[in-house]
């Protein structure tokens, strides 16, 4: 069902991109320059065989240039122009006792249905890569988490990514994985065998899901980031413990996308090497 929905969204986007291009009266090359992409990328987006949406900032640029809403571009609404309703550009949602509560999973699902490439800087490392034992340990102090539902969500995400129906980028501090391997900090009571098995499985999953999943490791000695997730051109979230700061203004979402790009540039381990680094950490677990 999710694959069919995503294909429908991509088809609507392709058709409506052609509509706004025709209205612009620009040549394809000029249009591509105006929205910040190259001519070949534009041609790929218009190709009938294409099954991917552009990056969030490109969607926002196309919508801004045409004076239409991103939701209309994606075929999610028949309302072409952005609504007149005033939406608070920043909202604070309390009661976030867990970074993966029902709201977070709902935002994930909405982004996935629309076919967005999600970008995340997780609190430790991505939850959908964690084993049931690790999630049970990490979230033991959050009894409101439905462990079974969370594990099902993780397995479903992996299955969809194997089919190239979903894609995600994650930036994680190298030191977070080193601490996990050594069993220090929050992981000090987690048995070595569980940590070793988790790292081994994570290495295999990252290798299997690449490039649907791209994983960058940055160095905390060089840069720092609070946990945040960019769900779409119109939604991004920062988690600060018990609070979600939700951003819906385009400029705020773009700022977080730029910060994510900064983390990618600062990465000391690139996606094609991450699997081997994680496997090496698994071998070091004692």
Question: How would you describe this protein?
Answer:
The protein is an alpha+beta fold and 286 residues long. Helices cover 52% and strands 15% of the residues. The chain contains twelve helices and eight strands. An eight-stranded mixed β-sheet has the order 1-7-6-5-2-3-4-8, sandwiched between helices. Strand 5 and strand 6 form a beta hairpin.
Strand content: 5-15%
- Helix % is 40-55%
Q: Output the CATH class name of the largest domain.
A: Alpha Beta
How many structural domains in the coordinates? 2
For the termini, the CA-CA separation is 44 Å
**Cα-atom radius of gyration:** 20 Å
Overall form: globular
Organism: Acuticoccus sediminis
Protein name: Transcriptional regulator
GO molecular function: DNA binding
InterPro entries: Cro/C1-type_HTH (IPR001387), Lambda_DNA-bd_dom_sf (IPR010982)
Topology overview:
Blueprint: H1 2-24, H2 28-35, H3 39-46, H4 56-66, H5 70-73, E1 90-96, H6 102-114, E2 118-121, H7 132-138, H8 147-162, E3 168-173, H9 174-182, H10 192-209, E4 213-218, E5 228-232, E6 235-239, E7 242-247, H11 250-266, E8 267-269, H12 271-284
Parallel strand pairs: 2-3, 3-4
Antiparallel strand pairs: 1-7, 2-5, 4-8, 5-6, 6-7
Write a concise synopsis of the structure shown.
By secondary structure, this protein is α+β, with helices and mostly antiparallel strands.
Task: For the structure shown, list the relevant keywords.
286 residues; 2 domains; 8-stranded mixed sheet; 52% helix; Lambda_DNA-bd_dom_sf; DNA binding; Cro/C1-type_HTH; Transcriptional regulator
């Amino acid at each position: 069902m999710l694959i069919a929905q995503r294909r429908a969204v991509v088809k609507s986007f392709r058709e409506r991109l052609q509509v706004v291009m025709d209205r612009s009266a620009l040549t394809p090359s000029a249009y591509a320059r105006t929205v910040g992409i190259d001519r070949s990328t534009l041609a790929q987006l218009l190709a009938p065989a294409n099954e991917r949406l552009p990056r969030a900032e490109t969607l926002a640029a196309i919508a801004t240039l045409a004076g239409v809403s991103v939701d209309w571009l994606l075929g999610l609404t028949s309302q072409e122009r952005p609504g007149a309703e005033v939406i608070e550009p920043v909202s604070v949602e309390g009661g976030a006792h867990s970074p993966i509560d029902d709201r977070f999973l709902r935002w994930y699902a909405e982004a996935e249905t629309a076919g967005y490439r999600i970008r995340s800087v997780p609190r430790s490392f991505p939850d959908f890569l964690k084993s049931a034992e690790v999630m049970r340990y990490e979230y033991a102090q959050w009894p409101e988490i439905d462990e079974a539902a969370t594990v099902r969500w993780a397995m479903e995400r992996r299955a969809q990514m194997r089919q190239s129906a979903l894609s995600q980028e994650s930036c994680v501090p190298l030191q977070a994985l080193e601490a996990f391997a050594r069993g220090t900090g929050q992981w000090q009571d987690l048995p070595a065998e569980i940590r070793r098995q988790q790292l081994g499985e994570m290495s295999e999953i990252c290798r299997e899901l690449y490039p649907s999943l791209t994983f960058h490791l940055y160095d905390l000695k060089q840069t720092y980031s609070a946990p945040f997730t960019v769900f779409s051109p119109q939604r991004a979230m920062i988690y600060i413990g018990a609070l979600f700061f939700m951003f819906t203004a385009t400029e705020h979402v773009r700022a977080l996308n730029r910060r994510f790009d900064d983390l990618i540039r600062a990465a000391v381990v690139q996606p094609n090497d991450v699997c081997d680094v994680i496997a090496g950490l698994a071998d070091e677990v004692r």
